[in-house]
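Action item from last meeting closed. Structure (293 res):
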């Protein structure tokens, strides 16, 4: 995560059309980690799917219901189970009768810096989508694309009729995502990013930040950014001695909002664990060093 925290003035609770089949409603949960807030998406016109219903905030749920405006909801889909994405699924399902489908449930203790991103322990989908599974409604088809990395259960959803991809937190429109062990995995993240590069999507709709009109360019840039970070880490370690993560973050993330440094440290840890798996680093009493070739 490298962008400075700069919340822009976007209206929350307003249904904003983005394409013939896609609209969004912004939740009122801005933060250094969510940017302007979590974006919940509607797909369809006469029959809807709701993607990432967001936090269990009464005002946001009311805004979703206002946007639905009595139309039938075929499915409520969640990309992953962080608390800014999935909790509103339960009250929305109760109000609409729609099934909750998408990612698998996942609950574990999260010792990372994001209190708002702890896993939703009450997420209980009616149906879990595997990679390539589809759900359809009037005029639209959504296909699950497995993208583990940010979390092990992360899914993206491809809107086949518009060659669009709802990317959740895997690709965001304002910053790189946090990869936080033990569930977040850098090797999985890189494989998932390469998978997106190999696709032919025309636009990404992230849960945070603006739509991405040149998606493969951004995905390649994010992979290059991660490789750059890996190189920085290796240079730190190869300079001699053992190094603490906090020292690496202080040097590598100069100029970044200090509130983001703990989250950056989680991604640095993910890189170190990946390098350790590849036999390039080792850890001793909270400090890391390079492994001699």
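Sequence:
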């Amino acid at each position: 995560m490298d962008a400075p925290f700069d919340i822009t003035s976007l209206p929350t609770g307003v249904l904003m059309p983005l394409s013939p089949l896609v609209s969004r409603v912004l939740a009122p949960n801005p933060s250094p980690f969510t940017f302007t807030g979590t974006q919940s998406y509607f797909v369809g016109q006469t029959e809807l799917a709701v993607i990432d219903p967001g936090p269990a905030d009464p005002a946001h749920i009311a805004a979703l219901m206002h946007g639905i405006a009595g139309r039938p909801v075929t499915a409520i889909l969640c990309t992953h189970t962080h608390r800014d994405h999935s909790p509103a699924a339960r009250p929305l399902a109760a109000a609409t009768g729609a099934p909750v489908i998408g990612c698998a449930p996942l609950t574990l203790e999260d010792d990372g810096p994001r209190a708002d991103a702890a896993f939703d322990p009450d997420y209980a989908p009616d149906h879990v989508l595997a990679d390539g599974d589809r759900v359809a409604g009037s005029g639209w088809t959504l296909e699950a694309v497995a993208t583990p990395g940010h979390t092990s259960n992360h899914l993206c959803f491809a809107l086949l009729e518009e060659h669009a991809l709802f990317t959740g937190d895997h690709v965001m429109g304002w910053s790189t995502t946090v990869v936080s062990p033990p569930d977040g995995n850098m090797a999985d993240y890189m494989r998932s990013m390469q998978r997106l590069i190999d696709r032919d999507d025309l636009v990404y709709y992230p849960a945070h930040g603006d739509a991405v009109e040149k998606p493969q360019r951004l995905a390649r840039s994010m992979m290059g950014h991660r490789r750059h970070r890996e190189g920085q880490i290796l240079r730190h370690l190869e300079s001699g001695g053992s190094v603490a993560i906090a020292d690496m973050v202080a040097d590598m993330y100069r100029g970044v909002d200090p509130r983001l440094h703990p989250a950056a440290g989680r991604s640095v840890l993910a890189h170190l664990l990946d390098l350790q798996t590849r036999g390039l680093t080792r850890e001793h009493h909270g400090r890391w060093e390079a492994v001699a070739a």
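Note appended to the action item: The chain has six helices and 15 strands.
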